[in-house]
Design a protein that fits this description.
This protein is α+β, with helices and mostly antiparallel strands. It folds into 2 domains: 70 residues; 134 residues, no CATH class. It is built from 2 helices and 23 strands. The strands form 9 sheets. It has a 5-stranded antiparallel β-sheet, with no helix packed on it. Strand 19 and strand 20 form a beta hairpin. Helix 1 runs antiparallel to helix 2. The protein is elongated, with a radius of gyration of 27 Å. 25% of the residues are buried. The model has no long low-confidence stretch (mean pLDDT 92).
C-alpha cells in the first residue's frame, strides 16, 4: 500500500513543476520576444514481479510481464521558438528579427549573451545597448546630433551626421544562428547562453543563409497563448487533485487494515 502513496506523491510533485512552468509563461505574456515553455515528464522505474516469456509449465510461457510503475518525474522543458507577433513601436532603434537568429550582447564579464529582444537604446556615448546597458556586438556608435537613423533589413546602420546631407554607414548588425536553439540555456533578462546541445553560434548578416531579416521600428512580442496556458493549468490542477485523491484512498485502505485487529 505504501507503494501507491509514494507513486501518487511523485505525480503531485510533477504537477507542481508543471504549474511552475505555466505560471512563468503567463507572467511573461508581455515580455518582449519571450518564448513559451512546456513541461515534459517521464515515467520512473518499474518493479518487475514476472518477466514475459517465463515458463508457466506444460510448455507454455507467460505472454506479458507483470510490472508496477513507481510514478512520474519532471524530465525537462520544451521551448517553443515560434515567432511572436510583430509590434510597431516607431522607435528608430527598435529591431525585430523576422526569422531565425539572435542578437549578440556583451556582458560586463566579457562573455557574449544572445537575445531576440531588440529594444535597443543609445547610451551617453552613443553606443547601441540593450535595456540593461549591454553593448550590441559588433559595436555600433551613433554620434550625437545624428538624424534620419535607419537600420536596413540586412543590418546596415546609417544616419545623417551633423554637417552632412547624405547618410553615412555607421556599422553592420549581425545575427547568430544555432543548429539546435532548443539547447540554449536561459539566463534571465531575455538572454540565452550556448548550452552543450545548442551547437556553436554561426554569425551571419541578416537575410543571409537562412538568417532572418531585421524589421526596424518593430519589436517581437511574446509567443505565449493565454488560452492554451489556461487549458494546461486546468489539466495540471485536475491531475494534482486526482493524485491527491489516490493518496487519500490509499490512506483509507491502510486505515481499514488497522481496524482488522480490533
Amino acid at each position: 500500500m505504501m507503494r501507491s502513496l509514494n507513486t501518487a506523491g511523485t505525480g503531485m510533485v510533477a504537477q507542481q513543476f508543471n504549474l511552475d512552468v505555466i505560471a512563468n509563461n503567463l507572467a511573461n505574456i508581455n515580455t518582449t520576444s519571450f518564448k513559451q515553455q512546456r513541461a515534459e515528464f517521464q515515467d520512473l522505474m518499474y518493479q518487475t514481479f514476472k518477466s514475459s516469456g517465463v515458463s508457466t509449465g506444460n510448455g507454455t510461457a507467460n505472454p506479458v510481464s507483470l510490472q508496477v510503475g513507481l510514478g512520474a518525474s519532471f524530465a525537462g522543458n520544451a521551448i517553443n521558438f515560434g515567432f511572436g507577433p510583430l509590434q510597431a513601436t516607431g522607435n528608430e532603434t527598435d529591431l525585430a528579427i523576422n526569422g531565425e537568429g539572435f542578437f549578440q550582447l556583451q556582458k560586463p564579464d566579457g562573455t557574449i549573451a544572445y537575445t531576440r529582444d531588440g529594444s535597443f537604446k543609445r547610451d551617453a556615448n552613443g553606443l547601441l545597448v540593450s535595456n540593461d546597458g549591454y553593448p550590441v556586438i559588433p559595436e555600433i556608435t551613433i554620434p550625437a546630433g545624428s538624424i534620419a537613423i535607419d537600420i536596413g533589413s540586412n543590418g546596415t546602420v546609417s544616419a545623417v551626421l551633423p554637417g552632412t546631407n547624405d547618410p553615412t554607414v555607421l556599422g553592420q548588425i549581425q545575427v547568430a544562428t544555432f543548429s539546435n536553439p532548443a539547447g540554449l540555456t536561459r539566463v534571465g533578462q531575455n538572454m540565452y547562453r550556448p548550452g552543450g546541445a545548442s551547437g556553436e553560434p554561426t554569425l551571419l548578416n541578416p537575410g543571409e543563409n537562412g538568417a532572418g531579416e531585421l524589421k526596424s521600428r518593430f519589436l517581437e512580442g511574446s509567443n505565449v497563448q493565454v488560452v492554451e496556458e489556461m487549458v494546461r493549468m486546468i489539466l495540471a490542477q485536475r491531475a494534482y487533485e486526482i493524485n491527491s485523491k489516490a493518496i487519500q484512498t490509499a490512506d483509507d485502505m491502510l486505515g481499514q487494515l488497522n481496524q482488522l485487529k480490533r
